[in-house]
Amino acid sequence: MQAAPTELGPFFAHVKHQSHPSPKLLDLGIQMRWGAPRHSARLFRNLRDHAPYAFGFEDVVIHEEDAIEDFDYQPSCVRRTAVGTFYPLSAFIAALYERRKANRNIFTALAELDRLLPAERPVTTRDIVNFCQSLGEAKPLPPERQADPPTDLLARDLETRGFRITRRIAQKGGVVLDIGWLPKPGARVFFTGILELRPTGSGIAGQWMPPGPCGVNRLLRREFEQLCKGPGACLSPAGRRHCLADVEPLPRDGNKAKHIDVWPVIHH
Amino acid sequence: MACHSPLIHARCENLLRSLTDDERAQLTSFAQRRLVHFGLPSNRDEDLYQQALYVVLKGIAGQGGRNPGPEDLQTKDTFRNYIRGVINSIVEGWARTHHRNGHCSLDVIQDIVAAPEAAQIEYHELLALLFARLRQRAPARLLPTIEAWEQSPDGRIPCVTSRKHVCAVRRLARQIAQELGVVPETQRPLAASLMDQALNQTAGEAAAAGAPAANSYASSCR
User: Which of B26, B25, B88 is CA-nearest to residue B52?
Assistant: First the structure.
């Protein structure tokens, strides 16, 4: 009889708060555990210099001594302090999965993390007006309730899984869709990717806009691709009407980008 | 070269305050298009725009950031064009990626401290030597952290007093570990099997010689 594979994590849990390592870094009182033997890392919140009140998943960082894998990251999300460098959690989690040091269902792991993290607080238009008028001196405004992204625009399997179109931007000859995943209504949206779709004579072709951030979005994108055959199959009939109704296809030689109608096969 | 004259400062502040809702919306939309171009989340457009304004304000206050020249402040249009340039520069920075070599030289010690009791017997002498030297050299304020580290279930140095103390213990431990030949002088990726092999050797050598092993770990990894 074959033994069930050990769940390597990542698992998230609240732990006792510790002192903040630097004025720009707050201890979140959350610990991540993964691997066998178990490793653990405390999670910190990296305060943005230009908007310390704002908070998103991309602001969650871990200490360099805990980041014990090779990984790609965006230096803009890194914080250097007297007690060491802090790296973005998202990039580290993606590396754990890619190196098979983590095997828990990514949706379950992110849903757990979402429950423990403080609420998302994006920078809004009101904040910018406030910033311009006071030249950055005014106190931050109270957070606004963020509306959930619209439903029924993606194919049924994708919608059931929790994927949503969070923004639609019309372009010449096509449309750009910001795809996100949310664990439940009202929860934070985890960015998945920017999908560019173009209607062609034979249907819809598309591509993910490269390079995108290094992080869990790459894992989510892979899950997204497994749930539908190709870019053309990801929209529901209502989604096609909503996203592509007013888009005029480009003449053949005007479309130089390599759009495809099936996802590229990535060998690991 | 940009200058920090009060005139430029005042002019820039006036221009920032005078941006209308339409102009703000245009700049935010520009930020959104740049984000999309790099495959980054388009809902961070306002965040990007605010960062651009922040670095300009920092620049004119002489605290780093971006310094607009007089030609950028001639008209509202030239100023908006300047802001677009700043947005472009920031978003390119956001899209840039680096690679981190994740293995740090203390992993080895952490793994030994965290090893199950049976495995620890093998490294008993090495650990005893390491912690004895640590206690000997560390100032009194670091002793609670060292004691907690010895008991730590996952091998990591826990923060019992302050994060600075954790760093100080880590620095000292790395120094002693290098003297003992447990970790190489330079940080680089390590294979787990080689690590075990090297640790066995180091523990044996240290016990037999009763003196610091000469970087046997580093040489066995090469």
Answer: B88
Question: Looking at the structure, do residues A117 and A15 belong to the same domain, yes or no?
Answer: yes
pTM, full prediction: 0.76
Nearest CA in chain B to A208: B39
Q: Range with the lowest mean pLDDT among A86-90, B67-71, B75-79? A: B67-71
Q: pLDDT per residue over A17-76, tens digit each?
A: 988 999 999 999 999 999 877 888 999 999 999 999 999 999 999 998 888 778 999 999
pLDDT at residue number B197: 40
Closest CA to A189 of A146, A227, A224: A146
Q: Enumerate the β-bridge partners of residue A55.
A: A121
Same domain, B207 and B111: yes
Same structural domain, A101 and A179? no
B47 part of contact set with chain A, CB < 8 Å = yes
Closest CA to B56 of B90, B93, B21, B91: B90
Is A135 within 8 Å of B156 when comparing Cβ atoms? no
Give dist(CA A61, CA A78) in Å, integer. 8
Check whether residue A118 and residue A206 sit in a common domain. no
For the stretch B183-209, pLDDT in tens is: 554 433 333 333 334 344 433 443 343
Chain A residues with beta carbon closer than 8 angstroms to that of B157? 65
Length of chain B: 222
Look at residues A71, A105, A122 and tell me which one is the last residue of a structural domain. A122
Give the mean pLDDT of B159-168.
81
User: Do the chains contact at B102 and A69, CB–CB below 8 Å?
Assistant: yes
Least confident span in A173-182, A242-251, B55-64: A242-251
| Residue numbers of the domain that contains A61 | 11-122
- Does residue B1 fall inside a structural domain? no
Domain of B33, in residue numbers:
6-95
The 10s digit of each residue's pLDDT in B5-47 is: 788 888 888 998 888 999 999 999 999 999 999 999 999 999 9
**Cα(B91)–Cα(B34) distance, integer angstroms:** 7
State the total domains in chain B.
2
Same domain membership, residue B122 and residue B80: no
Three-class secondary structure assignment of A102-117: CCCCHHHHHHHHHHHC
Mark whether B48 and B133 lie in a shared domain: no
Q: Say whether B156 and A66 touch across the interface (CB within 8 A).
A: yes
Distance of CA B128 to the CA centre of its chain: 31
- Is A131 at the interface with chain B, CB within 8 A? yes
Mean pLDDT of B144-149: 88
Chain B residue with minimal CA distance to A218?
B39
